[in-house]
Design brief:
There is one protein chain. The chain contains 21 helices and 17 strands. The protein is about 40% helix and about 15% strand. The chain has helices spanning about 5, 30-50, 65-80, 105-110, 135-150, 185-190, 210-215, 230-240, 270, 285-300, 305-310, 315-320, 325-335, 375-390, 410-420, 425-435, 445-465, 495-505, 525-540, 575-585, 605-620, and strands at about 25, 55-60, 85-90, 90-95, 125, 155-160, 180-185, 205-210, 220-225, 255-260, 365-370, 395-400, 475, 510-515, 550-555, 565-570, 630-635. The chain is of the alpha/beta class. It has three domains: about 5-270, 3-Layer(aba) Sandwich (Rossmann fold); about 280-335, no CATH class; about 365-405 and about 455-635, LmbE-like (Rossmann fold, 3-Layer(aba) Sandwich). The structure holds fructose -6-phosphate. Fructose -6-phosphate (F6R) binds near residues 60, 63, 64, 159 and 161. It comes from Seonamhaeicola aphaedonensis. GO terms for molecular function: glucosamine-6-phosphate deaminase activity.
C-alpha cells in the first residue's frame, strides 16, 4: 500500500463500506501503516517548511503511536527530516503528575520522540500535570488559546480507549468540549494499571484536550491495533453518534481516517459477516464461518438449518453454489467433527486422513512454548497432560522469566524464609533491605528480579512434575527482551530469536505449540510469537522442519472462534480437575494477581469457563456434548 491508499475517501461510497460512517483502512499488522502515517506527517512537515510555515501537530501517547514515532525518529536521523518548524500539542496528561515520573506522558513523549529529533523545546506543549488546582481552569483555557494562536492543528494523531475515549474524553463528553480536567473512567484506569503496577496507583484525573479541540484539526488519523479494540472500533465506525462513545463524534469530521490492523477490524460488518454486505468469494473457511454464524444466530444446530434460513440471511449466493442446505450442512458438520480428537499428537495405527494430526511418527518430539511460566497449563493443560500420557517426548520452553508479575510481598516472604534458613546470607539480606526502602517508582534490583524469576521457575517445575514431565525436558529461555524490570519491554532482538532457534534446532520437533494470543494486554505474547515466527522463517529450509506442524493456542484473555478451530481436544471432568491442580502450582499468580486486567476471575476459573464454553459452542452446533475442550489453530509456514 502507499500513501494514496490511506487518503481520506468518503465512507459509505462503496458497497462494502455501506455500514460504515468513518473512512478506514485495514492492514495485516501495525508495522506497515505506522510507517505510512509517519510519512504522511513527514510530507506535511516538509510542505509547511517549503512555505516557511509552522506545522502544528496534535500528538497522542500510549501503545498505538509508538511505531509512528520510531519511524519519525528514523526519518530524522537517516533522511534528514527536520522538526525545526514543528509545534506540537499533546492530547493529555495524568493529573496530578510529575514530569519526571516514568508514567507521565511528558516522559513518554521525550523518550519516544522529542529526545531524538531537533524540535525546539519551546515548541513542545504537553498539559502540565503539576498546575495547582486553583490555576487549572485558566491553564486549560490558555492551552486552547495557544493552539488557536498558532493557526490550529494541522494534523491530529489519535488512539482510542476501550471506553471509546479519544484523548481522555471519557463517555459523557460533550461534542464541543475544550481542554479541561476530567475524571478517568474505571476501564481506562484498569487498562493503565499495569504501567502503574496496580490500579490503586493510577491517577483518578487527567487534563485532556476536548472533543471540540480535536475536531478543529484539519486532518485526523486514529490508530487502533488488536482484538481488544475490535468492539469499540465497530461501535465507533458503524454506530450512532453518542456521547457514550465519544469517538463517534469523529463521524462528523470531514477528513478522518481510521487505520486498523486485522485484529481491531474483526467486528466490522464487512469483515465479520461479509455476506451481509456484498457478494462473496466463498472459499471453504468463509463457508464454515458463515454456517457457524447462522447456526449461532438462529440458535439451531447446523444439521437443522434450512434453505430459507440461508436465503433470509444474505447467503442465497452460497446456496446457489452448494445446491441445497442439506448438502452444505453435512459438509460443514463433518468439517467440524473432524477437528475433534483425543489424540493431539496423532492416533497411532489409525487412518489419519480425517484427523487433525498425523499418525506417524507414533512418538513425536514436541515443544510447548509458553510466553509466561504458566500459559502452558492455563491454555493447554489438558492437551499437555494427554501428550505426556500418550508417550510423546514433550518439552516445555518458558519464553520469559515472568518475574515482573510476582508481587513484592510474595518475594519478601521467600526472602525471609531463606534468611531464616541461612541467617548470614548477604544476598538474601540485601534483597530484604531493598524492599525496606523501595518506593513506587523504583525498578527492582537485579537480585530481586532474580528471586522473583526463581519463584516462577520453581512453581513451573512443580506443575510440570505433576504432569509427569522430567525436569530435563523443561527449558527456561529467559528471553532478554523481557528483562527490563518494568512493564515496558524492549523490542524483539536477534538474541531472542537465536535462543529460540537453538532450542528448536536441538530438539527438531514434529509439533510446536505456541501462544497465538494477540490480545495479551502487555504485548508479551505477541513478541514471543514474533520470535517464534522469525525462528521458523530462519529454520524452515532444514529437512526436519518439513515434518514440523505448528499449533497455536490462545492465552488467558481470548479464545479462537469455533469456525477457526482446527484441532479441538475434549477433556473429561477428571482431566478438568487435573488441569486445575496444575494451574494451582503457580501460587504467585493466584488470588488477585498483579496483572489481572478487567476480569477479576482467577486464571484457573477463566480457563475452566473458557474450555466449558468452547465445548458448549460445539454442542450447540450439533456436535457431541463434552465437559470441556481446548482449541488450536494450525500455523502454516
Ligand atoms: C493518549 C490518549 C488515549 C490513548 C488511548 C489508547 O494520549 O489520549 O486516548 O490514545 O487510551 O491507548 P493505547 O494506544 O495505549 O491503546
Amino acid at each position: 500500500m502507499n500513501l494514496e491508499n490511506i487518503r481520506y475517501k468518503k465512507p459509505g461510497t462503496f458497497e462494502e463500506t455501506r455500514f460504515e460512517k468513518i473512512h478506514n483502512v485495514i492492514f495485516k499488522d501495525s508495522t506497515e501503516p505506522s510507517v505510512l502515517i509517519a510519512h504522511e506527517i513527514a510530507n506535511l512537515i516538509k510542505e509547511k517548511e517549503a512555505k516557511r510555515k509552522p506545522c502544528v501537530l496534535g500528538l497522542a501517547t500510549g501503545s498505538s503511536p509508538i511505531k509512528v514515532y520510531e519511524e519519525l525518529v528514523r526519518l530524522h536521523k537517516e533522511e534528514g527530516l527536520s522538526f525545526a518548524n514543528v509545534i506540537t500539542f499533546n492530547l493529555d496528561e495524568y493529573y496530578p503528575m510529575d514530569k519526571s515520573n516514568i508514567q507521565s506522558y511528558f516522559y513518554f513523549m521525550h523518550e519516544h520522540l522529542f529526545n531524538h529529533v531537533d524540535i525546539l523545546p519551546q515548541n513542545i506543549n504537553i498539559p502540565d500535570g503539576k498546575v495547582s488546582a486553583d490555576d487549572l481552569y485558566q491553564y486549560c483555557i490558555d492551552y486552547e488559546m495557544k493552539i488557536k494562536s498558532v493557526g490550529g492543528l494541522d494534523f491530529q494523531l489519535l488512539g482510542i480507549g476501550r471506553t471509546g475515549h479519544i484523548g481522555f474524553n471519557e463517555p459523557g463528553s460533550h461534542f464541543n468540549s475544550g481542554t479541561r480536567s476530567i475524571t478517568l473512567d474505571h476501564i481506562t484506569r484498569v487498562d493503565a494499571a499495569p504501567a502503574f503496577l496496580g490500579i490503586d496507583n493510577v491517577p483518578r484525573k487527567a487534563i485532556t484536550m476536548g472533543i471540540g479541540t480535536v475536531m478543529g484539526a484539519k486532518r485526523i488519523v486514529l490508530l487502533s491495533w488488536g482484538n481488544n479494540k475490535a468492539e469499540i472500533v465497530q461501535k465507533t465506525i458503524e454506530g450512532d453518534i453518542t456521547s457514550e462513545v465519544p469517538a463517534t463524534y469523529l463521524q462528523n469530521h470531514k477528513n478522518t481516517t481510521f487505520i486498523l490492523d486485522e485484529g481491531a477490524a474483526t467486528e466490522l460488518t464487512r469483515v465479520k459477516t461479509p455476506w451481509l454486505v456484498t457478494s462473496c468469494n466463498w472459499d471453504e473457511s468463509l463457508k464454515l464461518k458463515a454456517v457457524v454464524w447462522l447456526s449461532e444466530l438462529l440458535n439451531k444446530s447446523i444439521l437443522k438449518l434450512t434453505d430459507s434460513d440461508y436465503n433470509n440471511n444474505g447467503m442465497s449466493g452460497l446456496l446457489t453454489e452448494e445446491g441445497t442446505a442439506y448438502d452444505l450442512n453435512i459438509k460443514m458438520f463433518n468439517r467440524l467433527q473432524h477437528t475433534i480428537t483425543g489424540w493431539p499428537g496423532g492416533k497411532p495405527n489409525a487412518d489419519d486422513s480425517n484427523r487433525p494430526e498425523r499418525a506417524v511418527p507414533e512418538r513425536k518430539r514436541i515443544i510447548i512454548f509458553s510466553p509466561h511460566p504458566d500459559d502452558d497449563v492455563i491454555s493447554m493443560g489438558g492437551t499437555f497432560d494427554r501428550l505426556v500420557e500418550q508417550g510423546h517426548d514433550v518439552h516445555v520452553a518458558y519464553q520469559t522469566s515472568g518475574n515482573i508479575a510476582v508481587s513484592d510481598e510474595e518475594a519478601l516472604k521467600f526472602a525471609e524464609i531463606t534468611q531464616s534458613l541461612c541467617p548470614n546470607c548477604d544476598e538474601t539480606q540485601s534483597i530484604i533491605n531493598f524492599f525496606r526502602i523501595k518506593t513506587d517508582n523504583d525498578i527492582d534490583s537485579e537480585k530481586v528480579r532474580k528471586l522473583k524469576g526463581l519463584i516462577r521457575r520453581n512453581e513451573s517445575l512443580a506443575a510440570t512434575r505433576y504432569l509427569g514431565l522430567n525436569d530435563k525436558n523443561v527449558h527456561f529461555l529467559d528471553l532478554p527482551f523481557y528483562e527490563t524490570g518494568t512493564i515496558k519491554k524492549n523490542n524483539i532482538g536477534s538474541e531472542d530469536v537465536a535462543i529460540m532457534k537453538d532450542l528448536i534446532d536441538k530438539i527438531k520437533p514434529h509439533q510446536i505449540y505456541a501462544a497465538g494470543d494477540l490480545a495479551d494486554p502487555h504485548g508479551t505474547h505477541k513478541v514471543c510469537l514474533d520470535a517464534l515466527f522469525l525462528s521458523i522463517e530462519a529454520l524452515k529450509h532444514n529437512n526436519y522442519m518439513n515434518d514440523c506442524w505448528v499449533w497455536l493456542y490462545r492465552g488467558a484473555w481470548h479464545e479462537w472462534e469455533s469456525y477457526q478451530i482446527e484441532m479441538a481436544v475434549p477433556m473429561s471432568p477428571d482431566q478438568v480437575l487435573k488441569k486445575r491442580h496444575a494451574i494451582f502450582y503457580h501460587q504467585s499468580q493466584k488470588d488477585g494477581v498483579m496483572f489481572q486486567g478487567d476480569d477479576s476471575r482467577e486464571f484457573w476459573v477463566r480457563a475452566e469457563d473458557r474450555n466449558r464454553l468452547t465445548a458448549k459452542k460445539y454442542n450447540d452446533l450439533g456436535l457431541a456434548d463434552y465437559a470441556a475442550i481446548e482449541a488450536f489453530k494450525r500455523y502454516y509456514f
